[in-house]
Design goal:
This protein is α+β, with helices and mostly antiparallel strands. It has ten helices and 14 strands. Strands 4-3-7-6-5 form a five-stranded antiparallel sheet. Strand 11 and strand 12 form a beta hairpin. Helix 5 runs antiparallel to helix 6, helix 6 runs parallel beside helix 10 and helix 9 packs antiparallel against helix 10. The relative contact order is 0.06. It is an enzyme of class 2 (transferase). This is histidine kinase.
Amino acid sequence: MPLGIRIFLVYALFIGLTGYFVLSTVMEEIRPGVRQSTEETLVDTANLMAEILRDDFKTGTLNQNHWPQLLKAYGERQPNATIWGLPKNQVNHRIYVTDAKGIVVLDSSGEAVGQDYSRWNDVYLTLLGEYGARSTRSDPNDANSSVMHVGAPIRDNGQIIGVVTVAKPNSSLQPYIDRTERRLLIYGAGLIGLGLLFGALLSWWLSAALRRLTVYAQAVSEGRKIEVPHYRGGELEQLATAVEQMRTQLEGKAYVERYVHTLTHELKSPLAAIRGAAELLESDMPLAQRQRFVSNIDSESARMQQLIERLLNLAQVEQRQGLEARVTVPLAALVDTLLDGQVARIEGRQLRVELLIPDDLEVLGEPFLLRQALGNLLENALDFTPVGGLLRFSAERVGEQVEFTLFNQAEAIPDYALPRLSERFYSLARPDSGRKSTGLGLNFVEEVVKLHKGEFRIGNVEGGVQVRLRLP
């Protein structure tokens, strides 16, 4: 299972369990919390009514006064109120008064007058001077039919002479409880959903960051060039830097070993030729023969120098992971400069040169590397073009790239050699001398094109050989 999914599952489990416990705890506290608030209001109302009814209760004129009509009118009122979005169309309080023996003397519902309520806790405890309250079901089989009753004492000179009880059915509170629970569930589910979305985004970001680092490590292990991933601080940036340093050290060591071995192998032949010629020069020989051996020493020394220089240039390019500069380079002007440097060879071999590159066409890249790469292509074309042959330079814009083409009139490249032309140290014999080059020129060109994120192709066309480069 991918690391990102595992992180997300652990995060989702944590969020789910936390949300469940928090929501369940809060949901369990909603109902008692609402009832506690309602009970506190009932206490205030009962004590207020006890003070209002005290004088009439003392004189025994409670039922003879206007209170029964007032309480009846109160019970029939329709507030038509909207409380937090919920309608309230009737009053739900029931008020009744009992005497010192617990006998109901006044009831807003008119149902219990004359009944003995002394056994109920709201009356019984209040008459004892304690806090009297109870919750009783109207229907013993219906848990939602419970009614809260809160009693308050009617006092005369400190003596309890009666009780006022204010009752409210819990069912009248249920809409508010349901609304609160529903809103809490919606908000809770929304927060959990946002938490999971944040966790998914965090897991995706972390997986993507690690995936980039994995792709980089795989590319390095396969020897492909790739830029090190960039992160904005933190452990990922430190990890990327550490991997890059490790790659540099390991590749540097292996690179040096490989190049020392290659250089040693390639220098054996010219060194052997120079040593053999030097040994022969120590003996007496005709002047013409002596000059031939001296010429051999000079050509082999030049070959060694050229090999070392090209190896150093190639090593510099191969070790780079990207361009040091990206500037616009006029292509026609660059080719003109290269042709000026080879004017002696071109005129000496009476070559025809066609330059079909628009003056305003530019490529984006590093000028020094581009000059070296195109210079290698020109030298390679000059080596194989016969006397009086044709060189044609052309270029055109293709989308966001420029396609550069170099055609040189020459014999076709053998089929077996085509796939290997850009291999290091692979070279074909030159038509004039029969000797091979260092075999590093086209390899260098390919590396430079890769650094520029371009394409390099070489193949046979009618009448000669054509090289195509695609550059940004």
